[in-house]
Amino acid sequence: MRHAKVEYQGRVRTVTVGPDDLPIGDDGEILDATGLRWLPASGGTLFGVALNYRGLLEARLPEFHQPPYQKPPEKPVLFIKTPNTRNAHQGTVARPQGERLQPGPALGVVIGRRASRVSEQDALDYVRGYTVVNEFSLPEDSYYRPAIKAKCRDGFCALGPWWVDRDDIANPHDLTLTLTVNGVEKQRGSTADLIWPIPRLIAELSEFMTLNAGDVLITGTPPGRVDVSEGDQVDTTIESIGTLRNLIVTDHGGEAKQ
């Protein structure tokens, strides 16, 4: 089953989503899609993972054997997307003037209950479901230390349009991700190429900090990031989950609009 958060007739509602992608209220009412605003699929802390696709890591192996790194990462490279980055389906993403902006398609894992020191064997029991994430960023020089200035601009993490129940996804490690810009495919990957699978990521994170219901684990972006410009329509699709759409605007000093 698919679930979403929307703003409809002045109030926030959690709804189910039917096979025709129309939101359905608790009373069975089909909501008028033209009169609602999609909200981010989850409101918890957003945890990101860098360098979690084999092709991306392999392409950078030579530099990891040079100073200051000396060797490739032996554990997941983690970062946080701050609350101001949270964005939604059909939300705008502002490209800072004079900067390059790159979308990042990723599978989002929504935590369903409090998790502390969880084993890999039990990790998926703590998952509520899965959502589509577009983790926008400015180009980065250091993957070992993802830069706040590059990762944490307003609206730089779109989630949605909905999340899908965990049990409705047969294998989260075999999902195709695609990113299109103005209808043209620019990036493709598969969660089969994750270096650190979802149970390992949950175990690693929950070893030193408590995860709470609604937190989202962004499992990483496949290789092939591209630049986007003002006016571009960016669609992020994950097999068996759905398509997240965002429009690129130029930052003139205001806030991103959802």
Automatic annotation (TrEMBL):
Domain Fumarylacetoacetase-like C-terminal intervals: 46-248
Keyword Membrane among UniProt keywords: no
The keyword Isomerase appears for this protein: yes
Keywords, comma-separated and alphabetical: Isomerase, Metal-binding
Organism superkingdom: Bacteria
GO molecular function, one term: isomerase activity
Protein name: 4-hydroxyphenylacetate degradation isomerase/decarboxylase domain-containing protein
Naturally occurring in which organism (per UniProt): Alloalcanivorax balearicus MACL04
